[in-house]
Amino acid sequence: MTETAGTGRDAEAVSRFVESFAAQLVEAGMARMPARVFAALLSSDEGSMTSAELGEQLRISPAAVSGAVRYLAQTHMVSREREPGSRRERYRVHGNQWYEALTNREAVIKRWEGALREGVTSLGAGTPAGRRMAETLAFFEFIEAEIVEMMERWRLHREKTFGPQ
Hints:
Elements: H1 11-27, H2 32-43, E1 48-50, H3 51-58, H4 62-74, E2 79-82, E3 89-92, H5 97-123, H6 128-162
Antiparallel strand pairs: 1-3, 2-3
Helix pairs in contact: 1-2, 2-4, 3-4, 5-6
């Protein structure tokens, strides 16, 4: 039987989607195991699964789940939650995971900007390397400003499309 218990969904079709979407994430630069775990969480009706559930669905070890979840949590793509009255953790993907992940990148861009400013100073603004560094800095400053504006537009669009969150 290919139907997922009680959901009416075709388990094989879900598995194909998970692997296909994960492959797209890998192509975009995400590591394979975090991509598979993220796609599985995203495709689950509850948006959350335990380590055992992820391991069973993806046919991976608890260690592989743990490493993938650690990466996804660091990038704000998933969160960990304790099951009430249990020591078991559930891993949850939220509707705003892309927003959180991109907002987290803002902090990384800020750190890069600081390093690039130091590079311009160290290399000398008038040198070819210093100019290249200054152009890279200007690019990240531009991107940062665009992200801030874009995220505000997204918040408004999301509320209009899906209602208050």
